[in-house]
Design goal:
This protein has about 180 residues and is α+β, with helices and mostly antiparallel strands. Helices cover about 20% and strands about 40% of the residues. A five-stranded mixed beta sheet has the order 1-5-10-9-6. The protein has a five-stranded antiparallel beta sheet with strand order 3-4-2-7-8. A hairpin with a 3-residue loop joins strand 3 and strand 4.
Length: about 180
C-alpha cells in the first residue's frame, strides 16, 4: 500500500499566473517557453526538468501542496479534484523548489532522494477563483478593491495537489 512520506504547502499569489516545481540542480529555462504555452492550454506541462502549472488568476492567493509518496498513490474518490495529469521529472539532487517566478518559493527534500519521478497534478477551485477575482475587479475605487482583497479567502479558492513518487534512476549523462 502506498504511503505518504511527506508534504509541503506553498500559499502565494502566483506571479505571471505560474507555479513551477523543479530540482534545484535543473536549469529552469530549458524548454520553459514551450511548457508554459502547453500549460496555458491544459493547466500543466513538463519539460522533464521542470513542471509548469498555469493558474487561473494572479490576483488572489493560490494553494499548492506537494506530496511525496512511496509508490503511485491510490486514486482519490474525492470528486472535488480534477482528473490528474501525469508527467515525469528528473530530480538529480532530490532537493525541490516549489515556486512562482519572481515570487515566493518553498524548498523541500524528497524523502526517497534523487531519481526519476512520476508527478501527478490535480486542481480544484479554478472557477471559484475566477469569480472571486472578477468580484474584486468590479470595485472601481481603490479602498473597495483593497477591502475585497482583504476579505477574500486567505488560502484561496484555487488549489493544486502535486503528488510525486520515485519510478527509477536517472539516465547516465554518457548515454544521452
Amino acid at each position: 500500500m502506498p504511503e505518504l512520506l511527506g508534504q509541503a504547502e506553498l500559499i502565494t499569489v502566483p506571479s505571471y499566473r505560474l507555479l513551477t516545481v523543479r530540482d534545484q540542480d535543473n536549469d529552469a529555462g530549458l524548454g520553459a517557453d514551450e511548457a508554459i504555452t502547453q500549460a496555458q492550454a491544459s493547466n500543466a506541462a513538463s519539460t522533464g526538468f521542470e513542471l509548469v502549472i498555469s493558474c487561473a488568476q494572479d490576483l488572489l492567493p493560490v494553494s499548492a501542496t506537494l506530496e511525496a509518496w512511496s509508490a503511485h498513490p491510490v486514486e482519490s474518490s474525492d470528486p472535488v479534484w480534477s482528473a490528474p495529469q501525469t508527467f515525469e521529472l528528473e530530480c538529480p539532487s532530490g532537493l525541490l523548489e516549489l515556486s512562482s517566478p519572481t515570487g515566493d518559493a518553498l524548498g523541500t527534500e524528497l524523502p526517497t532522494g534523487p531519481g526519476l519521478y512520476a508527478v501527478e497534478v490535480a486542481h480544484h477551485g479554478r472557477e471559484q477563483a475566477l469569480a472571486a477575482r472578477q468580484e474584486v475587479l468590479e470595485h472601481e475605487d481603490i479602498i473597495g478593491r483593497q477591502q475585497a482583497l482583504t476579505d477574500a479567502r486567505p488560502g484561496g479558492f484555487e488549489k493544486y495537489r502535486i503528488r510525486m513518487w520515485l519510478v527509477g534512476t536517472l539516465p547516465n549523462d554518457e548515454d544521452e
